[in-house]
Write a structure and sequence with these properties.
mainly alpha, 2 helices, Fur-regulated basic protein FbpA, Fur_reg_FbpA
Length: about 60
């Protein structure tokens, strides 16, 4: 039961963050609340990677 509560809290947190970022549905039309935790985590990670400033990596001799 504790695990389910923790998963539900994490899902709720991620959904709130994604909604604030402008997400409403996935590209295939599913609502955020329909997604399992793993998909919410992936969507959030993808968003954070896109939102982060891009750094150019240069090799130093």
């Amino acid at each position: 039961m504790e695990l389910k509560k923790a998963v539900d809290r994490r899902k709720s947190h991620l959904i709130s963050r994604l909604i604030k970022a402008g997400f409403i549905k996935t590209h295939d039309g599913r609502q955020l609340y329909e997604l399992p935790l793993a998909e919410l985590e992936r969507l959030h990670i993808d968003y954070k990677c896109q939102a982060a400033p891009q750094f150019e990596i240069k090799q130093v001799n």
